[in-house]
Every structure is written in C-alpha cells, then in structure tokens.
Amino acid sequence: MQARWDILARIVALDSRIRSVASQHATVRLLKTTPGVGPITAMTVVAAFDDATRFRRSSSAGAYLGLTPRRYESG
After folding, report:
1. CB 12 within 8 A of CB 22
2. Tens of pLDDT, residue by residue, the chain (75 residues)
3. Residue 31: count of CB within 10 angstroms of its CB
4. Nearest-angstrom CA–CA distance, 33 and 25
C-alpha cells in the first residue's frame, strides 16, 4: 500500500508542476479556454505545432499529425 501512496503523491506533484508551467505560457493559456482542453492537451498541441505559421491551412496541420489525408491524397 505504501508504494501506491507514493505513486499517487508523485502524480499530484507532477500534476501541480504541469499546471504551473502551463499557466506561464500564453498560447497554452489561450488553448485552455476551449471547453474540454486541459493543460496536458494544450501543452501537447503547443509542442507538436511549435511554429504554427508553417501551416497555410488547418487541413495541413491535421495531415501533419496523420489525422487526415493530405489534400490531394486518395483513400
């Protein structure tokens, strides 16, 4: 049981640290205003799209992650 309590305490500490880091980043704070988007999701998006200006269209961003087919890709 002690190992379980130690793991839970570590999770609480890491969650607190994630929230602290997320509150300091302007883009993460902006993304968190979207319903259903928390600090982990927002930080993941910011890390994946480090420079969003390289995507001309939102569909290009989805294709970059492999979520949607490329614009001229069949199937």
Report:
1. no
2. 999 999 999 999 999 999 999 999 999 999 999 999 999 999 998 888 888 788 888 778 877 877 776 566 565
3. 19
4. 13
β strands within the chain, DSSP E? none
- N residues, the chain: 75
Domains of the chain: which residue ranges?
A: 2-65
Phi-psi region of 66 (alpha: psi -120 to 50; beta: other; left: phi over 0): left
- 52, two tokens: 């969003």
CA–CA separation, 56 and 65 (whole Å)? 15
Question: For residue 36, what is the DSSP state?
Answer: T
Tell me, what amino acid is at 74? S
Distance in angstroms between the alpha carbons of the first and the last residue of the chain: 51
- The encoded tokens of residue 57 equal 């269209």
